[in-house]
């Protein structure tokens, strides 16, 4: 298992962070996800054989948030 960290911009209420946490947790290959709105950070434990950091990043963006380069 590996852990990926992302800066997540645009989470303006607690619904954003809990919704994103739920969306990430539901992805195939994700073991667990924690999203901290105050810190603008997401931490994702994942199985690198089943999902890649770039797809995790894409999922965050698909949920409507920005991940700065
Ligand atoms: Mo809160 Mo976030 O109403 O997309 S859930 S702003």
Automatic annotation (TrEMBL):
Q: Which residues form the signal peptide?
A: none
Which molecular-function annotations from GO does this UniProt entry contain?
A: metal ion binding
Question: What InterPro entries does the record tag this protein with?
Answer: HMA_dom (IPR006121), HMA_dom_sf (IPR036163)
PROSITE patterns assigned: HMA_2
Q: Ranges for the HMA domain?
A: 2-68
What domain of life does the UniProt record list for this protein's source? Bacteria
Q: Which Pfam families match?
A: HMA (PF00403)
Keyword annotations? Metal-binding
Q: What is this protein called?
A: Heavy-metal-associated domain-containing protein
């Amino acid at each position: 298992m590996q852990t990926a960290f992302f800066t997540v911009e645009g989470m303006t209420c607690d619904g954003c962070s809990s919704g994103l946490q739920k969306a990430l947790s539901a992805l195939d290959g994700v073991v667990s996800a924690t999203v901290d709105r105050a810190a603008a950070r997401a931490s994702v434990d994942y199985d690198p054989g089943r999902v890649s950091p770039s797809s995790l990043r894409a999922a965050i963006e698909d949920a409507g948030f920005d991940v700065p380069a």
